[in-house]
Amino acid sequence: MNAIPAAVPPPKNDKSAFVRDMFATIASRYDKTNRIISAGMDEGWRRRAIALLRAPHGAHIADLCCGTGDIVFHLLRTDPTLHVTGVDFCEPMLAQARARSAREGGGTAEFIEGDVMALPFADNSFDGATMGFAMRNVAEIDPTLREIRRVLKPGARFVNLDMSKAPNAAWKACFDLYFYGVVPLIGGIVSGSRAAYTYLPNSLTHHPDAEGLRDRFTAAGFANAGFVRLMGGAIALHYGDA
Ligand SMILES: C[S@@+](CC[C@H](N)C(=O)[O-])C[C@H]1O[C@@H](n2cnc3c(N)ncnc32)[C@H](O)[C@@H]1O
Questions:
Q1: How far apart are CA 209 and CA 164, in angstroms?
Q2: Could you report how far apart the first and last alpha carbons of the chain are, in Å?
Q3: Within 10 Å of residue 169's Cβ, how many Cβ atoms?
Q4: Which atom of ligand 1 approaches the CA of 117 most closely?
Q5: What is the reported pTM?
Q6: 5 found inside a domain
Q7: Is residue 1 part of a domain?
Q8: 237 lies in which domain range?
Q9: Does the residue 212 lie in any domain?
Q10: Contact 191/199 with Cβ under 8 angstroms?
Q11: Mean pLDDT per segment of 10 residues, for the chain of length 242 residues?
Q12: Which of 16, 147, 180, 236 is positioned for an S-S bond with 164, CB 3.0–4.6 A?
């Protein structure tokens, strides 16, 4: 039997294992690769996500699919009174986050291994939640959104930052050229895994557009669901209140 090439997204039931293994292979170079392929702009997008969260002082925030902790540390730099719990199912990514935590200092962060589709928390646990560049990677969006809403206190906000589909055809064509052509090349060289940086752009292909994802937020029970386009819509911030 022929093996499926690593860059081809696997069937849904294998997707979680595929994604976990892929991030394990690139964990140690993930931060460096991100800064290069986004030309450093990803930091600004994360700051916009945090502004949209409007977390009150002292709030307990979950950063879901936290990876190496980028959003966690941005949250704590923005407001050191926050208590932030980072959750990810890839232990090597969490190991990077914990190592950074020792270096960054300040604020209260903890990192927990867990699957965002079955979070290890009681109902109504958090005052807010964030997720960055991960909704494309979950095996199923709708159960994920319902699970996130379950762990939020009533009225608490969820903000999701991710790649999206630019509405302007000319801009989308330019961006696609970069995303599907240049990113696998540069990402492959810097991270050492061409397969990972071929899969990552392709994960956008079957992802809903911005309006579609907003409607999924609403269907999962989030109130006031909406989105903000960044980079002409190539990036989007979605939000909703539990
Ligand atoms: C592209 S990285 C994003 C990391 C971080 N949020 C950031 O902004 O840099 C995606 C992360 O999602 C995690 N992930 C994907 N699916 C997951 C799931 N079902 N449960 C928990 N973590 C998941 C991966 O392990 C990976 O660390």
A1: 6
A2: 46
A3: 8
A4: 19
A5: 0.91
A6: no
A7: no
A8: 12-241
A9: yes
A10: no
A11: 37 78 89 82 91 96 97 94 97 96 83 97 98 95 98 98 94 86 81 78 87 98 98 96 98
A12: 236
Q: What is the DSSP string of 22-49?
A: HHHHHGGGHHHHHHHHTTTTHHHHHHHH
Nearest CA to ligand 1 atom 4: 67
- Closest residue by Cα to atom 1, ligand 1, is 133
Give pLDDT, residue 38. Answer: 79
* Contact (CB, 8 A) for 181 and 203: no
The pLDDT value recorded for residue 37 is 79
CATH number for 205:
3.40.50.150
Structure tokens at 240: 């909703």
Cα 13 to Cα 18, 140, 225, distances in angstroms: 10, 9, 28
- Our count of domains for the chain comes to 1
Is residue 119 within 6 Å of ligand 1 at its C-beta?
no
pLDDT at 9: 44
Q: What is the pLDDT of residue 152?
A: 98
Residue among 88, 93, 136 whose CB has most ligand 1 atoms within 8 A, to mutate: 88
Is 201 a pocket residue for ligand 1 (Cβ < 6 Å)? Answer: no
Measured in degrees and rounded to the nearest 5, phi and psi for residue 240 equal: -165, 155
